[in-house]
Amino acid sequence: MILLCIIHLPILLACLLPCLKKRTAALGWLGVLAALPAGVLAWSGVVWPEVVFADLFLGSVLVLDPLRLVFLALTGTLWTLAGWYARSYLADDARAGRFQCFFLLSMAGNFGLILAADLITFYGFFVLMTFASYGLVVHQADPEAHRAGRIYLIMSLLGEVLLLSAMFLAVDAAGGQLRLDALSSAIGESPNRGLICTLAFLGFGVKAGAVPLYFWLPLAHPVAPTPASAVLSGAMIKAGLLGWIHFLPLGEQALPTGSGTLIFLGFLAAFGAAGLGLCQQNAKTILAYSSISQMGLMTVLLGISLAHPALWPVAAPALALFALHHGLAKGALFLGTGLLPVCPARWRRWVWAGLALAALAIAGAPLTSGALAKYGLKEVIAGTHHPDAGWLLLLLTLSAITTSLLLAKFLRMLGRGKQPAAHGTFAGLGVPWAVLILFVALGPYFAVMHFGLPLPFPPLTWGNLVGGLWPVLAGGMIFVGFLRLAPQAWRAIRIPAGDGIVLIERLITTLYRKIPFNWGDWWDREFLNFTTLSDRIMDIESTRSVVNRIEPRLGIWAVVGFILIGLILCFISLLIL
After folding, report:
1. How far, in Å, CA of 123 to CA of 117, rounded?
2. Cβ distance 214 to 269 under 8 Å?
3. Contact predicate 283/417, CB 8 Å
4. I need a labelling partner for 91 at 20 to 30 A (CA). Which of 23, 39, 48, 184 fits?
5. What is the pLDDT of residue 459?
């Protein structure tokens, strides 16, 4: 019952919002009250056995095992502190009530998909989180926010279609079973495992920011309110990672082809996103590309596990710890971007010290949580005993250099670039941010000891200290040297946020202008009724021939099923809009 209460509490508080519309003081605490029980339960380290709720969905199964415990610790902490931060950040915002509604619903979806042990419950809460977070992206209600929200919604719908296809095939392979652990085993033995894994990787890849489905991230983070950006990049992006863990046959069978693909795409994201981030001028956009880069390293770890199933018992806690470390540190950096504009001069050095600590943790500097997380990744790579393991370790070291370079650019733009608008008070924003910094410094170490994760601590030897320190120093020195030798060059190369999607938009605009067709007649308001529009469409000879070819195929059940899925997704999107 406690697990069910953790999920339903944010939904119940969202239902109370109309009653608290005029009580802004109480409204601001809802996000904290909704998330705090999840964080307390997770950090208590208590593992809960399966609980079956026969009357929920098609029979929901909830569980809190050691792997889910780490993910719940991350999300519970980040949602609690982001909600506390939002209380002050949105104190003078007329749309604060609307923000709280979407914030609470997204939170419920995030908690639910972590605790779910069956497919229907997992997917139901995944969809809730996906579409509720659209309201967080478009909160500012300006053209940039609407553009980012539109692209986010389009890509999310694409991901849902891919996921539904993967789920139907997976359930068929499992003989109708809906348990997630049974699905994973069945997928590994299915003759269609390549197709199922591809669909699942792409479907969850939209949420995880995988190449080539990451375009929404650099657009959504700059326009979303700062507390929303923190949970989008720190907590919700990990839902895609958890989906991969549930659907890919990890620990079941070796898939060399899939493994190589994931490793390649992971390193492509790690280095490519870092390069694209260096061409940005907005601090939050740089952090978005940094998240894509770090998710690439987690993808590499998944790829290694696909090739070596025997390593999964060690790789799983290493992956969860990496997600915990990155989510906490990235959340602290995002919240720090909103704290600096309201920071008094006498506190600025402490804020910069906290930001530097979080940045060093992501870069993997010695004695930070990043060093602990990356040591686990290195142990998994070394455990493969593969001839190419040395190359993987070299690429991992080079990624630390590019990460340091990117975060140095972030700190530079945060200090010298265009400052974001000031929201809230220093006390209201600074206290939750300071608490999060403490979690960044100590949380992953506490998780390893308290949760009993089978991960070693990096030995305090000169070799480990130098090996972890020199990539960070190299990245910082490259950035400083570049500024000294070519101070204007780093501003000259600019790639629009979203990169690939901008090219697609320009291509569509060009085609719209080049095609010799009078679009204005078709989109005139007097023609926008179903009868007139359908008659005009059917008057075209090519349209009639296409209809004649399509009509016989509508009798095929597979075609009808895909159309039904599309209609359901469109209906959901209309409800959100």
Report:
1. 10
2. yes
3. yes
4. 39
5. 82
Per DSSP, what are the bridge partners of residue 62? 51, 116
370: buried, middle or exposed (CB in 10 Å: 19+, 13-18, 0-12)? buried
Chain centroid to CA 506: how far? 26
- In this structure, the strands spanning 48-53 and 60-64 are antiparallel
Q: Which long-range contacts (CB under 8 A, 24 or more apart) does 356-361 make?
A: 356/411, 357/437, 357/440, 357/441, 358/329, 358/330, 358/332, 358/333, 358/437, 358/440, 359/329, 359/333, 359/407, 359/408, 359/410, 359/411, 360/472, 361/325, 361/329, 361/440, 361/441
Burial class (CB in 10 A: 0-12, 13-18, 19+), 114: buried
Token pair in block for residue 546: 């296409």
> Shortest CA distance to 407 belongs to which of 324, 497, 326, 286?
286
Regions in the chain scoring below 50 on pLDDT: 519, 521-523, 525-531, 533, 575-577
Helices (H), 486-518: 489-492, 500-514
Torsion of CA 493, 496, 501, 507, to 10 degrees: -80
Q: Which two tokens stand for residue 233?
A: 């990049």
> What pLDDT was estimated at residue 528?
44
Q: Tell me, what's the pLDDT at 570? A: 61
| Extents of the domains making up the chain | 2-492, 530-576
